[in-house]
Design a protein that fits this description.
- With about 750 residues, the protein is of the alpha/beta class.
- It folds into three domains: about 1-130 and about 160-225, no CATH class; about 275-500, Vaccinia Virus protein VP39 (Rossmann fold); about 530-758, MFS general substrate transporter like domains (Growth Hormone, Chain: A).
- It has 31 helices and eleven strands.
- A seven-stranded mixed sheet has the order 7-6-5-8-9-11-10, sandwiched between helices.
- Strand 10 (about 430) and strand 11 (about 435-445) form a beta hairpin.
- The protein is globular, with a radius of gyration of 28 Å.
Length: about 750
């Protein structure tokens, strides 16, 4: 059950990420919906386990439906944009992300949640245990989850597509159910019929896998996803998804559903402006560094400058360059085979940290902080790194969304935030506004502020640059001094926040901008989110304390409510910790998709060990409530100390010879997080069962509370806490929230009645 849940979750997460343009913040929304739906299935469908006389048979039927619904969910995910009327390459707003992922996950998650409660009941029937059954099933499920994370990372994702993996998973589930139900084949017609159905399903699954039919289903779903487009290649890598479509010799390379490179005829006006204006602003550019997106025009235009000696081109995903060579055009062939071009299969930030080279210009081909991986190239830490690698008079070039007519507050905040971040590092910033993209030139040289049209046109003629757009009259227009004044007026009153690795407010403004375009009804909501700060969180906490002590009851039932509340806040903390690890890893390294399975497996390993140790010790624990409270306190302390750990990890990256250690430390932190979160659940079951007669109802209630807290954590963490409050503010928020449940339990005068000992 745990193995199946993790595999289904990871593959649906990857498929939805492709549809949601690789925006990592949707991970929180997807995981949150998964958890709330599991909670519903666990509590409402699972409650029937108490009354059911055929628990094994019902468990089998639910497993069958779960396995089949996973296949349907993958297909629906691939055609999601067609269903909701969004064109290929268009971004999806947060609201469609929420309801579409909710509906797609609905059958899969609800059915999987029901399996937990039925599993507790079945285990209790066979083992004769009551109080420890839920804890033991929780441990076993978590062990399955650990195995699922490892198998996904090293076997399923590298070698199988989503349909192949899901059919193999279904065949495994059908076989397990057949073994489970086989001893009851003489019981009645219902059991015999179920066994026959299982046998047929196993045979059919094997046929799909071994006869190559799973590949046909996979290819059919791709054609349905990219309807009216000629898909010539579709492949997942450890960094994301790449799809190549072709139309009359024109190739478009999509990364996570977003067009990245167009050959052999690219977006000529933008590319010529992006390359030639900065290079003409430099007196003699010879050494260039292009970080991502260089192939398909940028390198070609840069090579037109006669002073160019070397161009280093860093591209994180080697699959993209392999496909550019697999589907060559004269443009890409001339770019990638030029002796002056040095291709680096490495993350751009890692290259800047490890190289000793210095450059005249560094061009960032990532054109907005639309996700965490991209945001890493728009932070104060990145700009500081670039500054160290620029020669005297060197220039950093980057682009941001811009408009000369549609000037909304979100666009103003995005440009203002990145402008202020650049200003905190570089002495001089020159912005060239455009209708579509704003071009930012940053340098410590005063020359960047004083470049004029005459000088640029003179250099254009001296270098004999042949171009379609960058001609004298166009330069006259773009470099008119009035545009710089216009931009200064445009960002007046904009956000003064600084975008950083651990406080990615630039990402928040980018998302708010796209939501303003595609979901304008959410503008007010996002503007309210932006106003949230630590003062707001502390004020809410103080209000809660006042209300709690005013309405506090001496009734033992009030304490009863404190146990599910504590499990709910623990679920919230667990989700935030998981998202924090994923987001921080992505902010530092930029390739979390190759490690997400290991991070989840490490977290679940800690949760399994914590739950297992407590479950084994349950009988000997004299005061279980006291231990429960101590774990609550440990989670609070861990929340407050976590930012210091991450800051230390970040600092380690600048030390030579320790590049691998921080990654291992992420797994250790993930394990500790899981250890703290998992150890509370068995204790909560024992404490709550002391005043409840129903094992299934108790297990369902507490498991649902855990998942409900995780749902709140996923939504709040992804949309508000991490982007707006940053790492430190989010950790403090988690600590304060856990403190509320801690106060509810510890301030009750009769809590010893629940603890087994005063």
């Amino acid at each position: 059950m745990g193995f199946s849940g993790l595999v289904a979750e990871i593959f649906l997460l990857r498929e939805l990420l492709i549809v949601f343009s690789g925006n990592e913040l949707c991970i929180g929304i997807i995981l949150a919906n998964w958890l709330i739906l599991e909670a519903f299935g666990c509590y409402f469908l699972g409650r029937k386990a108490e009354k059911s006389r055929n628990n094994v048979e019902t468990f089998t039927i639910i497993t069958i439906l779960f396995s089949l619904s996973l296949l349907v969910a993958i297909f629906l995910t691939r055609i999601l944009k067609r269903i909701i009327g969004i064109s290929i390459g268009e971004s999806i707003g947060f609201l469609p992300m929420f309801y579409s992922s909710f509906l797609i996950l609905l059958p899969v998650s609800v059915l999987h949640g029901a399996l937990f409660t039925f599993g507790c009941r079945i285990y209790s029937m066979f083992s004769g245990r009551d109080a420890s059954s839920a804890g033991r099933v929780y441990v076993y499920e978590t062990v399955g989850t650990i195995i699922g994370g490892i198998v996904c990372t090293w076997l399923l994702i590298p070698y199988l597509n989503s349909f192949q993996a899901s059919i193999w998973l279904a065949m495994l589930n059908f076989t397990v159910c057949l073994v489970l139900l086989a001893p009851y084949w003489k019981t009645g017609l219902f059991q015999k019929t179920t066994l026959v159905i299982l046998s047929v399903l196993i045979f059919f699954s094997g046929y799909l896998v071994f006869a190559g039919q799973a590949d046909k289903v996979h290819n059919y779903s791709i054609r349905a996803q990219w309807k009216n487009h000629n898909v010539i290649h579709y492949q997942n890598s450890q960094y994301g998804n790449i799809c190549v479509i072709e139309n009359q010799g024109q190739y478009i390379f999509f990364q996570d559903g977003v067009p990245n490179i167009i050959t052999p005829v690219p977006d000529i006006p933008f590319i010529e402006e992006f390359v030639h204006l900065p290079l003409l602003a430099h007196p003699e550019p010879s050494k260039l560094l292009i970080l991502s997106g260089g192939a398909g025009g940028i390198i070609n235009e840069a090579l037109k400058h006669p002073s160019i000696e070397t161009i280093e081109y860093a591209e994180l995903d080697p699959l993209l360059l392999d496909l550019l060579r697999k589907f060559p055009t004269p443009l890409t062939e001339s770019e990638l085979n030029d002796r002056r071009v040095k291709i680096k299969h490495i993350d751009g930030r890692l290259l800047l940290k490890t190289t000793q080279n210095k450059y005249d210009l560094i061009l960032t081909g990532i054109l907005e902080p639309s996700n965490l991986q991209a945001n890493r190239f728009f932070t104060k830490e990145f700009f500081s790194l670039v500054k160290k690698r620029l020669n005297k008079g060197g220039i950093l070039v980057l682009g941001l969304p811009g408009s000369l007519t549609y000037l909304n507050e979100e666009l103003k905040n995005l440009n203002g935030c990145i402008f202020n971040t650049l200003k905190s590092v570089f002495s001089h910033i020159r912005v060239i506004p455009g209708d579509g993209k704003n071009l930012f030139l940053s340098s410590d040289s005063r020359d960047i502020s004083t470049i004029d049209r005459v000088q640029i046109i003179e250099r254009l003629n001296q270098r004999n640059i042949k171009s379609d757009v960058i001609i004298p009259w166009h330069i006259e227009k773009k470099l008119h001094h009035g545009w710089q004044d216009w931009f200064s007026r445009f960002i007046e009153g904009s956000s003064q926040k600084i975008n950083s690795d651990f406080n990615p407010v630039g990402l928040f403004y980018s998302i708010a901008h796209w939501n303003a375009l595609f979901a304008p009804s959410l503008c007010r909501l996002f503007r309210q989110f932006e106003r949230i700060n630590l003062r707001t969180i502390v004020l809410l906490f103080v209000i809660f304390l006042l209300l709690f002590f005013f309405f506090r009851s001496k009734n033992i039932q009030f304490l009863r409510a404190g146990i599910p509340l504590s499990i709910m806040t623990t679920g919230f903390a667990g989700m935030i910790f998981s998202l924090m690890l994923i987001f921080t890893f992505q902010s530092i390294y930029g390739y979390v998709f190759s490690w997400i399975g290991l991070l989840v497996a490490s977290f679940m390993a800690g949760a399994a060990l914590g739950a297992m140790l407590v479950t084994r010790a349950l009988a000997g624990i004299k005061n279980d409530l006291k231990l429960f409270i101590k774990i609550d306190l440990a989670i609070i302390c861990f929340s407050i100390g976590l930012p210091l750990i991450f800051l230390a990890v970040h600092a380690c990256l600048d030390s030579p010879g320790v590049s691998f250690f921080p990654r291992i430390l992420f797994l250790v932190i993930s394990f500790i997080c899981g250890l703290l979160i998992g150890s509370q659940f068995p204790l909560a079951n024992k404490i709550y069962l002391r005043n409840s007669r129903s094992l299934s109802k108790t297990a369902g209630l507490l498991y649902a509370s855990d998942l409900l807290g995780g749902w709140f954590g996923g939504i709040a963490g992804a949309v508000v806490l991490l982007p707006v409050l940053g790492l430190t503010g989010t950790c403090i928020t988690v600590g304060l929230l856990k403190l509320t449940s801690f106060i509810v339990i510890t301030t009750q005068p009769d809590r010893h009645l629940w603890g087994g000992k005063k």
